[in-house]
Amino acid sequence: MTALLSLSGLTVDIPVAAGTLHALRGVTLDVREGEVFAIVGESGCGKSLTAAAILGLLPDSATLRAERMTWDSQDMTRMSRRQRMAMSGPQISAIFQDPLTALNPILSVGEQMTEGFLAHRLGSRSQARARAAELLEAVGVTPAERRMAQFPHELSGGLRQRVMIAMSLMCHPRLVVADEPTTALDVTTQVEILRLLQDRQKEAGLSLVLITHDLGVVAHIADRVAVMYAGEVVEQGSVAQVVGSPAHPYTRALLDCLPDLGQPERKLTPIPGVVPALTGDLTGCAFRNRCPHAHAACAGGIPWHRADTGQGYRCVLAPTSEEAA
Amino acid sequence: MLSFARDRILLSVCVLLTATFVGFLLLQASGDLAASLAGENASADDIAQLRQQLGLDQPLLLRYWHWLIGALQGDLGTSYFTREPVTGLFAERLGATLTLAIAALVISVVVSLPLGVFAALKPNSWVDGLLSLLALSGQAVPSFWLGLIFISFFGVTLRWLPISGSDTAMHFVLPSVVLAVSAIPALARLVRSGMIEVLSQDYIRTARSKGLPRHRVLMRHALRNALLPVISLTAVQLGALLGGSVIVEAVFAIDGIGQLTFRSIQRGDFPVVQAMLVFVALSYTVLTLVADLMNAWIDPRLRSRK
Ligand SMILES: Nc1ncnc2c1ncn2[C@@H]1O[C@H](COP(=O)(O)OP(=O)(O)OP(=O)(O)O)[C@@H](O)[C@H]1O
Ligand code: SF4
Ligand SMILES: [Mg+2]
User: Could you give the ipTM of this predicted complex?
Assistant: First the structure.
């Protein structure tokens, strides 16, 4: 199956006071048509920057390089600014973490919902409003006509995120990138929003890149998952593979942190140690200061193992030894 | 929006009444008006007579009341010196000051907005640095000095523009530019800092993620949000300009409100000074009201907050 979005060796450098921050250090992942692709990892591992790179929203100061970065087999690194802009909305759209700050406080829901549709000339103003109303109804923001006249501060957090979801679907995108879409919401709302997102994704048949640091969510709704650590993807595969038989020590450590997967009684064990600074020259495995299996070879080049099943991981441990570990 | 406007207007009326009353009190408290008006050689009888003539022997509250009734009917009393109605004195000079103030304001806004936006787009670049430098010098240069430089260069050397009086529109060019130069730095800086803050907001990222053209993101999403404090500052600046600029009016020999006030304060012309106070209070109140209404019109959060 060919990938809708394919990233290989994606690096992003950001100049900071202490030098250059190697924020992404060779991110490799494929998102297929119609799947839910999760990206997990601790805070600061580069999830949001990966999303920004996909969305073309990296900060101006950042430099992006990639061995391959293709959308539907077209090279994204060679696209002009205008071509990229034309993709934002009709091809790729976004849902952000905090719906209060992500919506403009002084524009009505209706204005914000329709402006992308109109800017891409997908139809008339009344068609835009009709589409917006239809989507708002579908995500449970009712009565749609009245809601469209309202402003973000007049809606609850859950409703705002529903508006964000509806808004992201306005131009019939093929891929929606959702960066921690439920983190800012209370727990009951989180479940509703995730379910809604999943329903919409299925119904529209679109691909969803879901960024989260909750492996429970991943196990629930994702088809495949990439685990990120210190700016790189350390493991990738189907959810059954990665959650069921994790190959990388970091993935295993992450799963150990999870109280409700596995035995219910198991205590939450935070991973000891800290993520290395990404400003210096990093060689070897970035996880080795925290890895229980770290040894001399981990300071050298780290191979990417890829099994026939599609599961892959970056570690010196051979595929067989992982079962023993 | 309507109830918001009604509340704001009621509040403004209260502010205005308080301001005029306090002003009245302060002016009364500033000394024995009759004595100072009568002059050094006047006898006690003369002073008493003058006091009675001017109505200064009546109780304070009563006098305020009479003044207020008169003021509401457009009668602000007569000048102690010229014996002309105060309203007339004002009306004659208002045109010049108003023209000057509005021209200066328009220039300031037209220059500050693009300047601030431009600087905000590339903060800390050389363009931004140059703009900060210009802003700083604009603020540091005294108006009288700049006025004199303008007069000698554009008026005397180049002979492009008239240098004194207020007969034609051309007469207002130099003085309004001088006034604008002192108003621009604060405005441009506010636009810049507002834009920088707004541009880092999440909703700007959302707007960009929709593939909107750059100018749309900038104008519709960023500038509109950044404009709120700018509108308030503009109102205050216009208020100050309407009070008349003593210095600029003096340098360019424009007989405006500033000159009138200055003279009246000097010679204790109480009715004129009191009228001036009302005028300044009224301009500030009205302008603040207009600014608040404009802001509420832009920002729905202000409308719903009580
Ligand atoms: N504009 C920026 N300038 C400098 N550094 C940045 C910038 N954006 C992100 N970073 C740094 O890049 C690294 C990765 O950031 P990113 O936001 O992608 O993390 P994340 O995985 O999304 O974390 P979180 O779970 O907290 O959202 C972090 O160390 C962050 O401090
Ligand atoms: S490469 Fe070494 S340090 Fe890194 S995860 Fe594998 S075993 Fe641990
Ligand atoms: Mg993030």
Answer: 0.89
